[in-house]
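#dry-run=false #mode=assembly
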Amino acid sequence: MIDFDPSTFGLAHTYQKEDKDEINTLSMPSAPQVIYRSLNGPTQTNGGNKLNNFKHGTTTLGFVFKEGILLAVDSRASMGSFLSSEQVRKVIEINEYLLGTMAGGAADCQYWLAYLANHCRTYELKNGSKLSVAAASKFLQGILIGYKNSGLSMGCMIAGTDLSGQHLYYIDNDGMRLKGDIFSVGSGSTYAYGVLDNHYRYDLSLDEAVELGVRAIYHATHRDTASGGVVRVYHIHQNGWTKVHDGIDVVDLHYKFAQQKGLVGDGDEAKQRLF
Amino acid sequence: MSGIFEYNGGSIVGMKGKNCIAMACDRRFGQQMSTITTNYQKVFKIQDNILLALSGLNSDIHTFYALMEKEINLYNLKENRKMKPTTFANLVASALYERRFGPFFVTPIVAGLENGKPILATYDSIGCKSDLDDFQVGGTGGNYIYGACEAFFKPDLSPEELEEVIGQSLVSGCDRDSLSGWGGVVYVLTEQKLTVKILKTKQT
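#status=ok
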């Protein structure tokens, strides 16, 4: 009799199976257990000073428009004031129809979005249809509520396409889950919102939307010290997602936009005396 | 990021060359993670042959510079002669120690030419003078600039080479510090002239 035990399905066994041969291909390392729950409120990440909480040092944004959803992110990682990297990938490709953005703790975002990816694939195999964006984001929210107050730091957007269209959700470590049309997350979000709110319309064309996303991220990187590097842009449409820009250097953008206005861009437009 | 010296951010560097000195600074004025302007002056010409660079709390940069400007003006009027760079270097140390128990939150670098000989001195915030090295750094990006300086610096560089070396060191260092940058200015002082050049850097 052929053994249809799912844990050994596909493995050729021509010898007596012993316990040590068991390879449980469907199991994952088990999710971290919370050992200590603070009685005094949320465990502070970074000494409790929210203003200097560099783990949220980033700018990510996403908005819904007539052609789908546009996601734009920066690529800077900082440890305090030290720039550890200018090339980080803050959009995590969960699967071909779902994207997640990273803000807050990089490890937390990477781990839990990969966990979500595993869950989506398992669901797809067991049920024969893809998990909806609403359900995927709700699953993640459920996990994060379970770890509430334990010090996780995540402010991510889940964006994707399913049978009912393209949807954008904001999920954070407090267990908040919000469906919306425009979100910006991270320390540079205030600057990005200013640009985004000024020019957003639902009936933007794809090119206009990409231009808006890029501009908003650029302005945030200029003013916010914790954002910078390159701009990465993704577009979600009914057939999945496409990477529109893999990395436009914000330094080049700065001088390009300055030139468009007829300025030099060295910050010294007032031409003050220097000695 | 917490700390009074990191509140405004900024970096300065000074170098000695062959009968010349160079100073460079970034141009950012910020408040913690937010950048306010990109044209803040941190290197001041105290006298034709003395430059003073200041980093630290911007309020104290301005106040300490005003204090030194007053001191040198009074000296010129009373003594009817120019102040020597070594004298000014000592004056800075005394002025800082005068505020030993309520210090100025600045780390100055003084650079000058005395009879053609380059002088470079750096201090901590309470006036400990150190004038032994050929290059000195200050500010939040200081440590990163040190690395670049060690790599690029050679003794007895000409003014043109010194300008190139100090500019590159400043830019490389500031690129790793999120609180410094947004432009750079290089000052090169020789017996004949003071050259001031604005660097095109990352504005992020």
